[in-house]
Amino acid sequence: MQTTSDRTRESDPDPDPDSAQDPTRIALVAFPGIRAFDVSVITEVWGVDRTDRGVPPFELRRTAAEQAPIALRGGLSLTPDRTLAWLARADLIVVPGLDDQPAPAPAPVLEALRRAHARATPIASLCGGAFTLAQAGLLDGRRAVTHWNLTDLLRTRHPRVEVTQDALFLHDDNIWTSAGTAAGIDLCLHLVRTTHGAETAATIARSMVTAPFRTGTQAQFIEHPTPRTDRDADTLAAVRAFALTHLAEPHTVDELAARAGMSPRSFARHFQATTGTTPLRWLITQRVAAAQKLLERTDLPLPEVARRTGFGSEITMRQHFATHLSTSPRDYRLAFHHPGQTRG
């Protein structure tokens, strides 16, 4: 079984340079030992044509030192359609995780990644792909994350890397790393969101039947004794659902705790254990996401967007956009507003 598709074989022509919208070029870096799951995630996010649903065009290329088939675990194989020289054309480079994390990556791969970083091309790794970036020296002195079960190994083998496990993904100096398995999906969708907007990321997520974004950290997935019953988890889920359907209203931890039938202290503790973040941080993240959608889909004035999403004022919304998205609501709308979508 091949992971390559007919549309991306070497004989395929490059996209028409005179087309209405130039595709975003994504390079998947392939070499023996990469995980088939991560290859599938990258292919599902960027290798499927969804232009009929308003998603901009992507050009995904599988690059390797040579264009010979690469065996993957599980009886699969991947046939590269470009050499590593194509990285010079890429807008984004993605490195899959590994079946055997300590295994050395080929020297041509490491050198190609160093050259790409020197050109300021964004580079992302999924799960154990952080070990490949560390071998290339790209994570020295930088914060990075990998699967929580691999953090000690990454620290031991690459002591100059500032390893953390309190994130689903991290960004440091144009380099992205992600936690284990499903967090790779989170990172890929986030990269789409930052370059093409929340609506594009949501469209891709819907087709994948996954959440467009998850809040919290991978601390919620680390093995611990189960502290509470399923009933408590259901109660917290109901409280989150209530807050989401009443975003325009002010919410305090005390009020949400009362709705859950818990003390504020107990509610905050169990909320963080379940989601990996605090109630107020979770609420702000949801409000930013809701404001992104309104800015993309509607022509509502900014004060009305702030009111509908619970920020209360445009100033407050602008402060949170600067913190979470490094931009302003006005600039975000200019970049990602879709003409012809719902008005008001």
Helix content: 40-55%
Whole-angstrom Rg: 21 Å
Q: Architecture of the largest domain in CATH?
A: 3-Layer(aba) Sandwich
Q: Rough shape?
A: globular
Provide the domain count.
2
Please report which band the strand proportion falls in: under 5%, 5-15%, 15-25%, 25-35%, 35-45% or over 45%.
Answer: 5-15%
What is the overall number of helices? 13
What's the main sheet like? Answer: 7 strands, mixed
Query: How many DSSP E strands?
Result: 11
The poorly predicted ranges are 1-13, 15-19, 216-230
Order of helices and strands: EHEEEEEHEHEHEEEHHHHHHHHH
Q: Please name the fourth-level CATH homologous superfamily of the largest domain.
A: Class I glutamine amidotransferase (GATase) domain
Mean pLDDT, rounded to whole units?
86
According to CATH, what is the topology of the largest domain? Answer: Rossmann fold
Widest beta sheet: strand line-up: 5-2-1-6-7-11-10
Which structural class should the secondary elements be placed in?
A: alpha/beta
N-to-C terminal Cα separation, in Å? Answer: 48 Å
What is the CATH C level class of the largest domain, in words?
A: Alpha Beta
Structure description:
By secondary structure, the protein is an alpha/beta fold. It folds into 2 domains: about 200 residues, 3-Layer(aba) Sandwich (Rossmann fold), CATH 3.40.50; about 120 residues, Orthogonal Bundle (Arc Repressor Mutant, subunit A). The protein is about 40% helix and about 10% strand. The chain is built from 13 helices and 11 strands. The strands form 3 sheets. A 7-stranded mixed sheet has the order 5-2-1-6-7-11-10, sandwiched between helices. The protein has a two-stranded antiparallel sheet with strand order 3-4. A two-stranded parallel ribbon has the order 8-9. The radius of gyration is 21 Å and the shape is globular.
